[in-house]
């Protein structure tokens, strides 16, 4: 497994052998296929982080995240969501850059 | 490191985002034509209403075409939500002018994806969008021709009735 990116709370890995990704959420290591990664990215993009600062729109500042066809359920607070956004953005960036310059070794 | 993303998906993620945005746009166009059909029904322009029903289903077909393409590429097509639909028009001419403007916006958006795809060397997308570029020319021409009718036949009373009768679904 290759570490792609680490944020404050989480780490993003790629496994060449399994042709998939892993996110270490601290208490749980979650395996993601490429499709599941796209789905997570999409889910994160729909989160309105502004609502977290408005007690009428998001009273407790939590976000419920279901991953991998509802196999996993996470309850994340504002900081954790922001951190996860950073993780995904950067991990995909690193993967993208790796692709562009044709890195084949790990 | 293996390029898993490339193994799983034939297009770039950034291009997929643009295509998902286009899916949304086609869905909006479809719903918007339905709103125009509603206005035409209520204002006694039955041929124009038929025309817009037909346009609405065509736009849905466009949406499905892109949706299927994203799926076929191994991507994540997103079922769109449609917001901010306008149902208010003051004249039949305004309806068709709004429709033309909408088509022009769609054309611009497709050109935009096309140039992004070219930059990313997503030639598959370039090839796919070629059909839409030809289609957009047809759509724009249709509305331009209809708007010409108002110039020729006028905008008052019975003229509008005659214009409506001349409007047929393609
Ligand atoms: Fe269209």
Describe the protein.
- Chain B: Iron-storage protein. May alleviate iron toxicity in the presence of oxygen.
- The complex is a heterodimer of chains A (106) and B (170).
- By secondary structure, chain A is of the alpha+beta class.
- Chain A has one domain (2-95).
- Chain A is built from two helices and six strands.
- Chain A has a four-stranded antiparallel beta sheet. In chain A, strands 5-6 form a two-stranded antiparallel sheet.
- In chain A, β2 and β3 form a beta hairpin.
- Residues 100-106 of chain A have low confidence and may be disordered.
- With 170 residues, chain B is an all-alpha fold.
- Chain B has one domain (2-76, 89-166): Ferritin.
- In chain B, α2 packs antiparallel against α3 and α2 packs antiparallel against α4 (92-119).
- Chain B starts with a helix and ends with a helix.
- At the A-B interface, α1 and α2 of A face α1 of B.
Pick out its properties.
heterodimer; A: alpha+beta; four-stranded antiparallel beta sheet; 6 strands; globular; B: 170 residues; Ferritin; 6 helices; elongated; binds fe (ii) ion; identical protein binding (chain B)
């Amino acid at each position: 497994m290759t570490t792609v990116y680490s944020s404050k709370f989480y780490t993003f890995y790629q496994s060449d052998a399994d042709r998939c990704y892993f996110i270490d959420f601290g208490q749980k290591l979650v395996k993601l296929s490429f499709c599941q990664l796209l789905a997570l990215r999409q889910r994160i993009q729909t989160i309105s982080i502004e609502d977290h600062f408005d007690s009428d729109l998001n009273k407790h500042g939590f976000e419920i995240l279901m991953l991998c066809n509802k196999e996993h359920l996470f309850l994340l607070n504002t900081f954790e969501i922001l951190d996860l956004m950073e993780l995904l953005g950067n991990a995909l960036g690193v993967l993208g850059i790796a692709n562009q310059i044709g890195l084949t070794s790990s | 490191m293996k390029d898993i993303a490339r193994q799983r998906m034939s297009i770039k993620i950034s291009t997929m985002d643009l295509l998902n945005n286009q899916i949304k746009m086609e869905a909006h166009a479809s719903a918007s034509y339905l709103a125009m059909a509603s206005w035409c029904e209520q204002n006694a322009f039955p041929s124009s209403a038929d025309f817009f029903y037909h346009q609405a289903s065509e736009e849905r077909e466009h949406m499905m075409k892109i949706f299927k393409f994203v799926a076929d590429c191994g991507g994540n097509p997103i079922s769109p939500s449609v917001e901010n639909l306008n149902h208010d028009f003051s004249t039949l001419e305004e309806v068709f002018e709004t429709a033309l403007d909408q088509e022009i916006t769609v054309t611009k958006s497709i050109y935009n994806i096309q140039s992004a795809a070219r930059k990313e060397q997503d030639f598959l997308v370039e090839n796919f969008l070629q059909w839409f570029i030809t289609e957009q020319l047809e759509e724009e021409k249709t509305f331009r021709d209809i708007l010409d009718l108002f110039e020729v036949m006028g905008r008052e009373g019975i003229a509008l009735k005659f214009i409506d009768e001349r409007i047929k679904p393609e």
